[in-house]
Amino acid sequence: MAPPPAFRRPGPRIAHWGAALAVGWLGCGAALAQRGVPARAVTVPAGRLDAGLRRLAAATGWQILFDPALVGDRRTRAIVSTTDPAGALARMLAGSGLKARRLAGGVFIIVTAASPRRPASTSATPPPVAVEDEIVVTALKRATPLDDTELSIATLSAATIEARNVTDLRAAARLLPGLAAFNTSALQQRLAVRGVSATGEATVGVYYGESPIAGPSGTGADPGASAPDIDLVDIERIELLKGPQGTLYGASSMGGTLRILPHGVDLDRSGAWVEARGDLVAHGGAGGALVAMANPVLVPDRLAARLVAYRRTLGGYIDNDRLDATDRGQLQREGVRIQVAWRPDQAVRLDTLYLHQRTGLDDGGFWDPALGRYRVAQPTLTPNSDRLDLASATLHATLDGAVVTATGSYLRRRIVRQIDYTEVLARQRDSVAGCLRLAGLPTGAACDAAARTAYQAYVDARLPAILYQPNRLTGISGEVRVAAPAGAAFAWTLGAFVEDRRDAVDSYAARAGADDGRLVHPLDIIGLRTIATGFDQQAVFAEATHAVVPRLSATAGLRLYRYRRQGSGTVPVPNIITGSAMAGGDRYTGSAGGSNLKGELAYRVPGGPLVYALVSEGFRPGGINVTPGLAADERTFGADHLWNYELGAKAGRGRWSIEAAAYRIDWRAATFAVTSANGAFVYNVNLSNVAIRGGEVRGSMVAGPFRLAAAASFTDARLGEDTLLGTTEGMGRRGDRLPNLPQWAYLVSGEARLGPWTLGADVSGNDAAPTGFNAGNAYYRHTGARIEVAAHAGWQAGRWRLDANVDNLFDAIAPVRLQSSAFGERQLYSARPRTLSLRARTDW
């Protein structure tokens, strides 16, 4: 029985079928576009300017943002049947002392005519966009200026992502204090915001564009352990929404939401670029990347596409002394993204997206500090892979008095995990239960010396061993929402969301070769169990903001949801050593429903900051434990939920901005993973309440050619009561800190733009974090403090750009997570050693 290889070199077939798919989509779109749609005539009656701006926005599909206090009771002349909406907007504002600053994708901000002129974007990418010191975000599912968004939110712009060589979520987290990203296994990671971290469904919702992306449940009913890590190529911006987003984003956003927003299709101008990068990793090998983008306009202002292809290799740097293998931990990532946009009318736009990515890691990615820097003595080699396919279509339509957005998504992930299983099996060498199982004796009987000798020989003959786990996930989701047009005095959103996910895992315990440490083919199976789970949910939601009095607004939100879980498992090949034969083939189900609430007051101080007070609720669905030997009442675990109480303020004036927030979170029935007595299995239980206190602050300033920014977060997450069972982090006591969560995280960044040159540096880090609840856990350790310095330099002339980056400039050991368990001790995941990157890019 030979499984598919877990790690393969990229091949050319992706480009072949990707190009075929692109041609098919473009052909369909071109056929539709040839029908021709006449430009819509715009008419705006004379009257109040604010009402006229809203009418123009509804007729054109533009998002026209303005402060009602700024527009006041100004009036506008009549605009009659014009097909030039830009000219109509200019005529409406003539003589008012106001002007419209155009950003991108039909986004306008109304400002005073005396405002300093800023460069206009030539891209037709849909919002959000960033220009100089003004950022427009869509965190509230409508366009709002960042400094006027009633929410604690951090962003990374396209310029920041490119200049700092940010290619994955780990690099992004360094620049977003408050976002924790730590390894759960090779090529797997968990995300946490504001200390909300636990097993089960994700606590941070991850969106790529409008599409949510989940992970498979695996053997531990833990989708949150496999947060997607899509290559951050051709990205417009990343938004990190802090605190529960249960109203608008629903389940799995109880700690926050991370939105990765790719560049949209430019319908006005064709363009292309290509870049090549070379990397050199200290103590290890070389790598590099080749990336290309093309944006052909097929029908001006009507139909266009955006095609992105990439291949990236990061050199390995870990040496396995036992197997004489050097420079392990090489990462390869390749992918293609195909987008097509069709705008038959100024008020209607259809965006389609297909993303394919393959990621491979040629070994476990951790090392043992007791053996020396970047050295390990694991008896096996454990390559891992992750294949992701995402397809989506989003329709935007601006009607009279409302904006409709409808999105449908299809997600497929194929994750192949390999984990060293040698230590787990070796620990069972003296197991009485295992001896009885091999001898076929009943529980309570005695194993004589001959039976013990036979059992120990049986165990020894199956070492070393690997857990080989192919995971399969498919999911379909859809959302429809109707919202008030941009600039409406009464902002509201109504919507519905549905999701259906199915995943399965085959967990083989199989022998590896003693000489090379690789999985033996065909598989020499020690045990096999299979798990299949299903999850479907439905929700309706509403959120509205209304001005109670001038400058004071109130927001209320509600989400009603219902979900259903199902799970089943079989044991085709019982594992005599660990006892997986105790698992049955029954099907288990669980369902629940509930509501999420949100309430907020925001006051805009005249000439001063925006101040807000927020109360919001978050939740996660419960799940099914398909684990050997559990009692009936342990087969399911329930939903957990929390309340977030927050005070915040933000202000921005010209070249500076500052934001601060303080919060308290009460988390009830938090889910933790519990380990079976032999350490071979884990399952989830609602064990304890958690109290979290914290605060965040960020600021930025521009002075001439210099830009400075700083951000810091403090999170104190502690158990509110004793746990009743021993978890994977030990027995928890009231007041114990939650594991793997630093209390402090910080970033200090500086950049200078001197003619064609850009020079900058970043210092980021966090303090130490415990790996368990307390020292009573045999595996209790501390992940050390991390500090990293990165520098970058860029030069641009015409269509050419050259960049140099040095990550981990001082070659520090920057720990991410120190993990010890029955699977192995002192497994240290850390940032890469000093890495030098050189990039050349040219645009057309």
Overall body shape: globular
What is the percentage of strand-forming residues? over 45%
From the helix content, strand content and strand pairing, which structural class follows? mainly beta
**How many helices in DSSP terms?**
9
Largest sheet: number of strands, sense, barrel closure: 22 strands, antiparallel, barrel
Report the strand count: 49
Q: Could you name the ranges where pLDDT drops below 50 across 5 or more consecutive residues?
A: 1-39, 115-133
* Rounded radius of gyration (Å): 28 Å
Proportion of helical residues: under 10%
pLDDT averaged residue by residue = 87
Distance between the termini: 51 Å
Report what the structure shows:
- This protein has 844 residues and is mostly beta strands.
- Helix content is 10%, strand content 52%.
- The strands form eleven sheets. The protein has a 22-stranded antiparallel β-barrel.
- Strand 24 and strand 25 form a beta hairpin.
- Helix 2 runs antiparallel to helix 4 and helix 8 (432-439) packs across helix 9.
- The two termini are 51 Å apart.
- Mean pLDDT is 87; it is low at 1-39 and 115-133.
Question: What topology does this entry show?
Answer:
Layout: H1 13-33, E1 42-44, E2 47-48, H2 49-60, E3 63-65, H3 68-71, E4 75-76, E5 79-82, H4 85-93, E6 98-102, E7 107-112, E8 129-131, E9 134-137, E10 144-145, E11 153-157, H5 158-163, H6 169-174, E12 179-185, E13 188-193, E14 204-208, E15 211-212, E16 235-242, E17 256-262, E18 271-281, E19 286-295, E20 297-299, E21 303-314, E22 318-320, E23 325-328, E24 331-345, E25 348-361, E26 375-376, E27 384-399, E28 402-420, H7 422-427, H8 432-439, H9 449-460, E29 465-483, E30 491-511, E31 525-549, E32 552-573, E33 587-604, E34 610-620, E35 623-624, E36 636-637, E37 640-653, E38 656-675, E39 682-703, E40 706-719, E41 744-754, E42 757-766, E43 769-770, E44 782-783, E45 786-797, E46 800-807, E47 815-821, E48 824-830, E49 835-843
Parallel strand pairs: 3-7, 14-17, 22-26
Antiparallel strand pairs: 1-5, 2-4, 6-7, 8-9, 9-10, 11-16, 12-13, 14-15, 16-17, 18-19, 18-49, 19-21, 20-21, 21-24, 22-23, 24-25, 25-27, 27-28, 28-29, 29-30, 30-31, 31-32, 32-33, 33-34, 34-37, 35-36, 37-38, 38-39, 39-40, 40-41, 41-42, 42-45, 43-44, 45-46, 46-49, 47-48
Helix pairs in contact: 2-4, 8-9
